[in-house]
Automatic annotation (TrEMBL):
<feature type="transmembrane region" description="Helical">
    <location>
        <begin position="178"/>
        <end position="201"/>
    </location>
</feature>
<feature type="transmembrane region" description="Helical">
    <location>
        <begin position="110"/>
        <end position="134"/>
    </location>
</feature>
<dbReference type="Pfam" id="PF00990">
    <property type="entry name" value="GGDEF"/>
</dbReference>
<keyword id="KW-0812">Transmembrane</keyword>
<feature type="domain" description="EAL">
    <location>
        <begin position="423"/>
        <end position="673"/>
    </location>
</feature>
<feature type="transmembrane region" description="Helical">
    <location>
        <begin position="47"/>
        <end position="72"/>
    </location>
</feature>
<dbReference type="InterPro" id="IPR043128">
    <property type="entry name" value="Rev_trsase/Diguanyl_cyclase"/>
</dbReference>
<keyword id="KW-0472">Membrane</keyword>
<feature type="transmembrane region" description="Helical">
    <location>
        <begin position="213"/>
        <end position="236"/>
    </location>
</feature>
<dbReference type="Pfam" id="PF00563">
    <property type="entry name" value="EAL"/>
</dbReference>
<dbReference type="InterPro" id="IPR029787">
    <property type="entry name" value="Nucleotide_cyclase"/>
</dbReference>
<dbReference type="InterPro" id="IPR001633">
    <property type="entry name" value="EAL_dom"/>
</dbReference>
<protein>
    <submittedName>
        <fullName>Diguanylate cyclase/phosphodiesterase (GGDEF &amp; EAL domains) with PAS/PAC sensor(S)</fullName>
    </submittedName>
</protein>
<feature type="transmembrane region" description="Helical">
    <location>
        <begin position="84"/>
        <end position="103"/>
    </location>
</feature>
<feature type="transmembrane region" description="Helical">
    <location>
        <begin position="14"/>
        <end position="35"/>
    </location>
</feature>
<dbReference type="InterPro" id="IPR052155">
    <property type="entry name" value="Biofilm_reg_signaling"/>
</dbReference>
<dbReference type="InterPro" id="IPR005330">
    <property type="entry name" value="MHYT_dom"/>
</dbReference>
Length: 676
């Protein structure tokens, strides 16, 4: 050991030795960083990184060797043979490159140790090939003990470097690997040089000494350039990866269409605000937002128009956000807003700003629409103890707002929990209600306004729950649609209604509503045909009612099915006419047999000038197209008189008769016309 230290201290130039050590340390750090990068890649990319590893490791080891050889002072003239010098560089590049490929291969288990040993052996081979190129004007003697020891050191420290680098169990593993790789190169060189004894025949001149320093500086500079190039490649790739990672993180936390925070980021912010509220004196308002009629806009004007609507509304809501406010998009037409506040007036101001942004007209290019939205508001800690409950309660309030025609802003109330539980129970019970005969049919008369004669009956579904009694259709129909049981339920209604009507002694037309989900079902035409055949009801006595929303959901498909139904001889009526964006377009696209004017236009017919004007326009449209118009919801004689005066064809409502089972209306007797 003392011999090695004496060799370094007395037989090597201090400046060049320091330069060699610096090259080795920097080269080791760069090389092992590249090795870690290569280990994480696959395919051709991995081989590309291994190429850089070979260049960096070979250059680092060879430049260290070359500069250290120039630092050696044998006090005699020295000549380096070019062919062997170049061969030593090639061995360093290829040998260490192969060793690092083996090190990162992962198989067998000891691949890091084996690969590291190969790297050490390659450095040793490079060193002694380089020594063969080292021709000195003097007598040379070798100490074989130090010769073998130098090779053992190179292989040993090379193996340790691989072990530290690939067994990343501790934070210091990389630094230990760099030190081990540096030790492999340095210990090999200086132990090998300690094995060499030179007796000069001629002594080195001052000019030759200056040339040696110039050459060492040049080689060191070139080596650092090579290493710098490898380092630059690594840093560029790391920057690109960091940029890609930031982009992926942004994508993972933001809505791709609007750029708003998505549910993940929104909930994270909500959780942070909850912690802040727990430690402070402010509260949090969570506002669930669901756009009204977004699907109608999307289906009628196309997905591009729907996307434009979402982007425009998002921009409006975020335009004037203040501190403590956040807007996020959860998907589809569902948004959420967050507001931290102390004063109730601040919250009301925020809700007002949102409502204005959601209600103003939006120009879609090919149409101008007024979207509107339902807002459900829950407040922490008043309405919930944790984030999940707050989200759930805001959602319940939003659902209540959607059901409310007049007030589209709803604050959470504790009674909603009970309503939600009842709704969940009904969703479970509805699946067994058909088999247990809990459903039954009512019929409401439809009359000609001209002579008062019966033109038909609308079939209305009712549910008598064994525990809750009569369940309103406005409650169980949406549940049936959400759960998917509406298809089976609709088929049951159609079969039961046709069977009942076929048994009447007097032939009467029945009107049965078809849900949007039924209309989208490919087997609807066959189902109707089979039911007509089974029950014996003539097709001309069956009228199927469809809403505008059911048609525009998939317009081409729906119209194709309606044409097939009409070909069976069944009549088709458009229900709730006038309540959607697409009323006229829908009416133009299919030869309907009847227009059913929505009850909302009849309710205030005798008080609202606009409603009267609208009814007059629809009746005129029906007359020009030769399509009879039936007005729903007629409850007063004044409404009846106005409709008669305006030329309405048929009417239906409580004024004419309430819905009731067929037996109560006398439909099973020939005198039903008088009884009804």
């Amino acid at each position: 050991m003392m011999t090695v230290l004496n060799c370094i201290a007395t037989q090597h130039d201090a400046w060049l030795t320091t330069l060699a050590a610096l090259i080795c340390l920097v080269g080791s750090a760069i090389t092992l960083n590249l090795v870690r990068k290569a280990a994480r890649c696959h395919g051709f990319v991995r081989y590309g990184w291994h190429f850089l590893v070979a260049i960096a490791s070979g250059s680092a080891a060879w430049c260290t060797h070359f500069v250290a050889m120039l630092a050696y002072e044998p006090s005699a003239p020295v000549v380096l043979l070019p062919d062997l010098t170049i061969l030593s560089l090639a061995i360093a590049v290829v040998g260490t490159g192969i060793g690092f490929v083996v090190m990162t291969g992962g198989f067998p288990r000891f691949a890091p140790v084996i690969g590291g040993a190969m790297v050490g052996a390659s450095i040793a081979t490079m060193h002694y090939i380089g020594m063969l190129a080292y021709r000195v004007d003097g007598l040379i003697e070798w100490n074989m003990d130090y010769f073998y020891a130098s090779i053992v050191f190179a292989v040993l420290f090379g193996s340790l470097s691989g072990q530290f680098l690939m067994r990343r169990r501790y934070p210091t593993s990389y630094r230990l690997a760099v030190l081990a790789f540096t030790a492999a190169v340095v210990s090999l060189h200086f132990t090998g040089m300690a094995a060499l004894t030179v007796t000069p025949m001629n002594y080195l001149q001052e000019a030759e000494l200056a040339d040696k320093f110039t050459l060492a500086t040049s080689v060191g500079g070139v080596g650092l350039i090579v290493l710098g190039t490898a380092l630059a490649s690594y840093l560029i790739d790391s920057h690109v990866q960091s940029s890609n990672l930031r982009q992926l993180q942004h994508i993972a936390r933001h809505d791709s269409l609007t750029g708003l925070p998505n549910r993940t980021q929104f909930v994270e912010r909500l959780s942070r605000e909850k912690v802040s509220a727990d430690n402070g004196d402010h509260r949090i308002a969570l506002i669930g937002i669901d756009l009204d009629r977004f699907k109608e806009v999307n289906d009628l004007y196309g997905h591009a128009a729907g996307d434009r609507l979402l982007c425009e509304i998002s921009a409006r809501m975020t335009e004037h956000l203040e501190s403590g406010e956040l807007i996020g998009r959860f998907g589809g037409d569902e948004f959420a807003a967050l507001k931290t506040f102390q004063d109730e007036d601040d919250l009301r101001s925020f809700v007002s700003r949102l409502n204005i942004a959601l209600s103003d007209l939006v120009d879609l290019g090919n149409a101008v629409v007024r979207p509107g939205a339902s807002l459900g508001i829950a407040i922490y800690p008043t309405d919930a103890e944790d984030v999940e409950k707050l989200l759930s309660n805001a959602d319940m309030a939003m659902y209540r707002a959607k059901q409310n025609i007049e007030n589209k802003i709803c604050y959470y109330e504790s009674s909603m929990d009970e309503a939600a539980r009842k709704r969940a129970a009904l969703a479970r019970d509805i699946w067994t209600a058909i088999d247990e005969n809990q459903f039954f049919l009512n019929f409401q008369v439809q009359r000609s306004i001209k002579d008062g004669g019966i033109s038909g009956y609308e079939v209305l579904l009712r549910w008598r729950h064994p525990v809750q009694g009569l369940v309103p259709p406005t409650l169980f129909i949406p549940i049936a649609e959400e759960s998917g049981v509406i298809t089976q339920l609709g088929e049951w209604v159609l079969r039961a209604a046709c069977k009942e009507a076929a048994s009447w002694p007097v032939s009467r037309r029945i009107a049965v509503n078809i849900s949007p989900l039924q209309l989208s079902h490919t087997g609807l035409v066959d189902t109707v045909q089979n039911i007509l055949n089974e029950t014996g009801l003539p097709a001309k006595l069956l009228e199927l009612e469809v809403t505008e929303g059911a048609i525009i959901r998939d317009k081409a498909r729906a119209l194709h099915i309606l044409r097939e139904l009409k070909a069976l001889g069944v009549s088709i009526a458009i229900d709730d006419f006038g309540t959607g964006y697409s009323s006229l377009a829908t009416l133009r696209s299919f030869p309907f047999d009847k227009i059913k004017l929505d009850r909302s236009f009849v309710t205030d017919l005798d008080q609202n000038v606009q409603s009267k004007a609208f009814v007059r326009a629809i009746l005129a449209l029906g007359h020009s197209l030769d399509i009879p118009v039936l007005a729903e919801g007629v409850e007063t004689q004044t409404q009846m008189d106005i409709l008669q005066e305006e030329g309405c064809n048929q009417v239906q409502g409580f004024l004419l008769g309430r819905p009731a089972p067929a037996i109560h209306l006398g439909l099973d007797k020939k005198g039903e016309a008088q009884a009804a």
